[in-house]
Specification:
about 80 residues, alpha+beta, three-stranded antiparallel beta sheet, two-stranded parallel sheet, about 25% strand, globular
Amino acid sequence: MAGKLEKVAITEKALYQRVNRKMKADGKVLKRARGRLVATLGDYYTVDLTRNCIMDKHVDIEDCGREIGVLQQYEALEGAK
């Protein structure tokens, strides 16, 4: 029977940790904005630790995880569409 395969749900915290482990090797880190910074930086942003500067603003954590290879095709962010 060919049925639709369900994706494994991954929590936002678990994905955040996976992304940071992978990015640490490149001297970068994913940060979560809080307070008034959310309007400027978005929910997540990346920081280059070697240059101490913000690299990307308004980062979609699920897209980032897929792009760097820490979120597989059979996994999905919990609560995502």
